[in-house]
Amino acid sequence: MDKEELWQAVLAQIQFGVSRANFATWFRNTKILSKKDGEIIVSVPNSFSKEWLSSKYHNTILKILRNLDNGIKIINYTVQLEKPSRTKSKSISKKREELEINQLSFNEFKIDQETNLNPIYRFDNFVIGSFNELAHAAAWAISDNPGLVYNPLFIYGGVGLGKTHLLEAIGNRIVENFPKKNVKYVPAERFTSEIVRAIREHEIENLKTKLREIDVLIMDDAQFLAGKEKTQEEFFHIFNTLREANKQIILSSDKPPKAIPALEERLRSRFEGGMIADISLPDFETRMAILKAKCEEKGIELHSDVLEYIVSNIQRNIRELEGALNRLLIFKKLNNKSPDIDVVKKLLSNLINFPARSTTYKKIVQAVAQFYDLKGGDLLALTRRKEIVRPRQIAMYLLRFELKESYPSIGRKFGGKDHTTAIYACEKISKELENNESLINEMGLIRQRIYSESL
């Protein structure tokens, strides 16, 4: 068989062993460039894909190729970039230069005024790992068939883990594939402001009419709807209208629907009526892949020891990885060279050299209370209300395992309760964490709040 048939046969077999999301990310735009003397050269679109295929899928690819042609001995991968026209090349170079001169930010591209989407957020620069694979797969499916699968899609996860990137990637791909569809991205806070303005100016019916004309509604940070009764009421009716017309609704939040406090039950049930997917913390390997991808985007080469240092010390979210990289980009621009490991340690000292696991009793209580939309004093009050008891048990558990507090000390902090109450709470939460996926996710989000610099 020729090169093209051979590679198509390889791809056909690989599809059975990987998820659709991974296949689309790593094997798109690949092909066999040459086959000679037992050597196969595979073309890939960028150096990131080259490294991922050679480290993750090489053995699988080689095994399939040898089964198809036992004369194949080795595989090499090479980056083959699309050659832009001279005019396009100049335009890209000029744009890149402008971006570097500005704040070296990931968000410098012009926002589309019709959709509110940022064109920089795409599927092909979204890194997939076990921490976000389900969310990515659902997002990709929706962008193929908006309104027909996973409606609504609700994605939740901590700050800086890629929720906004994924939501806007869906919108951008739908705009590309279905140019006639009316796509609108709106943060929940902006939506609330629009509702308030429309009510004040007696234009609520006009606003609702415009919203009903949307084919794909993407709402970011839906947790900000909590406690806003009028906004929730209007959104409930808009949601129903869009859903009944098979129009796609996509939402994100920092917590799952059932953990969003002060959210009307009827709206909560609508959010839970489609697909719910979480994005958790990326592991070391995925953080490294993300950092390398961003290095490639921003045109900077860093030594392996520098990459490892950054990835080992910045673990909480992807946004911090980018913030660290931007500092190094500024250094490179000012000094016309990439920083070595010693320079990197100095440049990132105030970002990295803080007590990574340092917290206090007050921070834990505050973080738990904020997550469940309570006041700190509520957790300390002498009450058995259901909405208080559960968060209080979680706070006790965190005091025990994050601060190593004794059981009597924990009891005293929570209204002078007996140490047996603290023991019961900690054992109860510990047992639930063994198999309660929802609680595991909530605990991860709370811990992220605890160690966030904003607290």
What is the CATH class of the largest domain?
Answer: Alpha Beta
Main sheet characteristics = 5 strands, parallel
Shape: globular
What's the structural domain tally?
4
Helices and strands: which structural class? alpha/beta
Query: Roughly how much helix do the residues carry, as a percent range?
Result: 55-70%
Strand order of the largest sheet: 5-6-7-4-8
The CATH architecture designation of the largest domain is 3-Layer(aba) Sandwich
The separation of the N and C termini measures 62 Å
The stretches of 5 or more residues where confidence is low (pLDDT under 50) are 83-108
Summarize the structure in words.
This protein has 455 residues and is α/β, with parallel strands linked by helices. It folds into 4 domains: 3-79, GMP Synthetase, Chain A, domain 3 (2-Layer Sandwich), CATH 3.30.300.180; 110-279, P-loop containing nucleotide triphosphate hydrolases (Rossmann fold, 3-Layer(aba) Sandwich); 284-352, Helicase, Ruva Protein, domain 3; 361-451, Orthogonal Bundle (Chromosomal Replication Initiator Protein Dnaa, Chain: A), CATH 1.10.1750. Helices cover 55% and strands 10% of the residues. The chain is built from 21 helices and 8 strands. Strand 1 (31-36) and strand 2 form a beta hairpin. Helix 1 (3-14) crosses helix 3 (47-68) and helix 19 (407-413) crosses helix 20. The longest helix has 22 residues, at 47-68. The termini are far apart. Residues 83-108 have low confidence and may be disordered.
